[in-house]
Amino acid sequence: MFFVKTKSPIDFIIVGLGNIGTQYVKTRHNTGFNAVDYIGGRAGIEIKRLKHMSKTGTGIIAGKKTLIMKPQTYMNNSGEAVADAARFYKLNAENILVIFDDASLDVGKLRIRRSGSDGGHNGIKSIVEHLGTESFPRIKIGVGLKPRDDYDLADWVLSDLTVGDRNAIAEKYDAVFDSVSLIINGDIEKAMQLYN
Prior knowledge:
- The chain has seven helices and seven strands; from the N terminus they run βαβββαββαβαααα.
- It is globular and about 45 Å long.
- By secondary structure, the chain is α/β, with parallel strands linked by helices.
- Helices cover 35% and strands 20% of the residues.
- The chain has one domain: Rossmann fold (3-Layer(aba) Sandwich).
């Protein structure tokens, strides 16, 4: 999905992926939600307005008018919310940054990419389907590999992080914020060099 750029009240969208409901708050799959909560707090942006099937907040990050989104569609339908906001603000996919958990990375490891496949992540799969492109930047946050090969991946990402793992991930939120600022300013290469 691509648009002719006109003047928009929003320059950039940051999407954190997760599931709604108290039972999911401490799970691996809610790492994206937790990361954007940190970003919003540091930027002074309250993420509470219901819009685009999401909890949202708007403010300035890295000098750009930014919308932070936490889709309320559940993980597997995240693309519905993201595409709705993209259409409304007439933003190209390159101006939509998605932050999410990655169960193929060690806990707290960051992996920044300009684009890419869904990698088996249902939230990203939904966004790719609804935007019609894989060409959106993303920050993956490692939540640890499955303890055994025969362990069901869905069970793993929906299980709670240990306190130690939550702390290890939280220690990377400053790096995530700095990466976001670089990406918004068009310097994803520097973000990858510094934090991958």
